[in-house]
Design goal:
seven-stranded mixed β-sheet, single chain, 2 domains, alpha+beta, Arc Repressor Mutant, subunit A, elongated
Amino acid sequence: MDRQEFWKLMADGFDLCGWLYDENGELFDYSENVEALAYQFNNIFIITKCKQAMMEHFAESDTPLVLTAPLGISWVAALQEENAGMRYYHLLGPALCGEIPKDTIREALSPMSLSLPKQSSPQEHRIENLVCMLPLLPHLILPRVALQLHSFATGERTAMERVIYITLPTQSPLPGLSSVKMSKWTDSHQLMEAVRAGDIKSALLAGLSVTSGVGDLQMAKFAAMTIQAYANHAASESGLPGDILRDLASFNTRVIAESRTVQGVNQAIQSMLEDLTKRLRLFRQDASLSKEIHSCCEYIRYHLNDDLTTKQLANRLGYATYYLTKKFKRETGQSVNEYIRNQKIERAKFLLHNTSMSIRRISESLCFSSSSYFSTVFQQETGKWPTDYRAEKYRRK
């Protein structure tokens, strides 16, 4: 496959532009879909210091690279070295991690705007409009794209752990000032090994090391997205069902995006890694279950705040209701409804001992028809009424 064919494939699959820089860092070629915007996008790549960071990285290493500039503007890069000693830098991008208002773009990129060459350009080519035009590509996808680019550039496959993330600061230094200050993460191997092993302590140590000392909220969020990408990849390799991982990724991405402080991002990272390693341990404990029934159990545990029904679960798996009922009972020893009820009572026990939520609120959150019915079911399952169960905690203190 030649360069233009590969670029077209990336454009069709991810709406990404392809770029090629020579060994001196000069723009050598770019894909057809860049069209008239090559000048502007190349300037963004240079002025955000991503180009400098790319060349500094490849001066020391040949590992594939994910570069993230202010606002989540991202590229992936790979190095091609030829027998004659020539070096080429392959690039795909830019892309965004999420939708961003134009006013936010203007404010965050104002230092960059001051550095852009003065050139008359149409209104639609102003920097805030250009950024809004970029494709949305979640951080979960970026390392996979980097692996594809590395394979094309070198003809060799490499492991996910070798992909390096570099995050540039929100306020990029202007030309002539001090060299790039960046966050470069190389602990992906330790994190992935810890997640695969279900070792929560080591996973937290590797994950939270990325944001230690980070004072910038946006950089912390980018780091958290990076951690999520590697952790989910490790969990996927360990057999955790893809539909569960997609649900987790959607939920955790929203929590990270809505965090208002670096501490909140760190808490989101901690909760994410604890949850993921716990699910992997449960997955291994449920090794006797078929993939479909395990996926069903995971879905139930993750959606206890929904009004779950056997028919809904069967439709999700593509089963007839009677078939799921029979298969679930044979593998777990419980009916679907019994399993749902038991899991909801386990969640209620946690809420009673660890929150101040009222019994009525707990009942509503777990989709019981009434607080009296919830109390009756709770008493049948545990031998205690919810008020008595909650009181036990304080009597033990």
